[in-house]
């Protein structure tokens, strides 16, 4: 156990330095306020001005693009920008999807906290708009391919924040859906945090996802199982051993008729809560 922990820590450190050691000459290094210096956290402030190391393009459907640019930043000069996403029709399956993926260090563990600042404009989508997800192998499974993994997601739906537990995608359902009563923050930066507890102590199932907006935990007045066709059996949230991969960007599962932009900045993930920091 001691060796395993030491190896994990070493790998984590390498990943941490790789992700964060890009403060340019003359530029003040990002401090703990953004989580970049938080112990055991991985962080991305996008100040490389291009897609950070380790991230690879994944989904690319309909119109728009996902890129790191300097059109708007929460801190520094750059952010991840989902630009002018549009395509499909509201109420119909299929929508613009522009995402990137990152493989986590081995032995990440079954609990994943995250934090990202999000700016959306000019309108709140009605369709399901995913922003971040994290995936893990099914219990006892040796499968590691992306489409074999259980996953948690943070998104918006019907213009409000939403969180979901999914079985492998496709199809990604029957899924456990929680929709908040809180509208997506528009035309301003908002801090989203989440906790995906795939261990959940001695409980028989992985925990429901938890989400905070600007430090306040969201409540879920709408909670339901979604499946197509509708499912009668309850969703069993399978427990996790290690999260293995994360995905971010913007992914619409139904159409989007209003060209919409999102920016994501100061993305961070870790095994403990990172917080929104200051400034
Ligand atoms: Ca930035």
Automatic annotation (TrEMBL):
The keyword Signal applies. Residues 1-21 form the signal peptide. PROSITE patterns: PROKAR_LIPOPROTEIN. Gene3D superfamilies: 2.60.120.200. This is GH16 domain-containing protein. It comes from the Bacteria. Keywords: Signal.
């Amino acid at each position: 156990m001691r060796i395993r922990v030491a190896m994990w820590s070493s790998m984590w450190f390498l990943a941490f330095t790789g992700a964060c050691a890009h403060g340019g000459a003359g530029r003040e290094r990002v401090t703990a306020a953004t989580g970049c210096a938080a112990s055991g956290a991985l962080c991305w402030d996008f100040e490389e001005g291009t897609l950070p190391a380790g991230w690879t393009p994944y989904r690319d459907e309909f119109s728009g693009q996902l890129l790191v640019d300097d059109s708007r930043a929460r801190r520094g000069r750059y952010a991840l920008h989902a630009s002018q996403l549009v395509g499909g029709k509201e109420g119909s399956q299929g929508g613009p999807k522009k995402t990137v993926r990152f493989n986590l260090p081995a032995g990440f563990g079954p609990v994943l906290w995250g934090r990202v600042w999000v700016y959306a404009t000019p309108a709140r989508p009605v369709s399901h708009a995913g922003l971040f997800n994290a995936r893990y192998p099914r219990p006892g499974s040796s499968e590691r391919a992306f489409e074999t993994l259980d996953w948690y997601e943070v998104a918006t739906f019907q213009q409000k924040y939403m969180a979901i537990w999914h079985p492998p995608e496709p199809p990604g359902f029957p899924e456990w859906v929680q929709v908040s009563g809180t509208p997506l923050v528009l035309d301003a930066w908002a801090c989203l945090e989440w906790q995906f507890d795939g261990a959940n102590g001695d409980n028989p199932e992985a925990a429901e996802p938890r989400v905070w907006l600007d430090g306040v935990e969201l409540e879920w007045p709408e909670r339901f199982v979604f499946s197509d066709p509708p499912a009668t059996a309850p969703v069993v949230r399978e427990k996790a051993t290690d999260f293995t991969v994360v995905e971010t960007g913007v992914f619409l599962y139904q159409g989007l008729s209003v060209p919409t932009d999102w920016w994501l900045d100061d993305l961070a993930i870790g095994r403990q809560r990172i917080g929104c920091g200051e400034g």
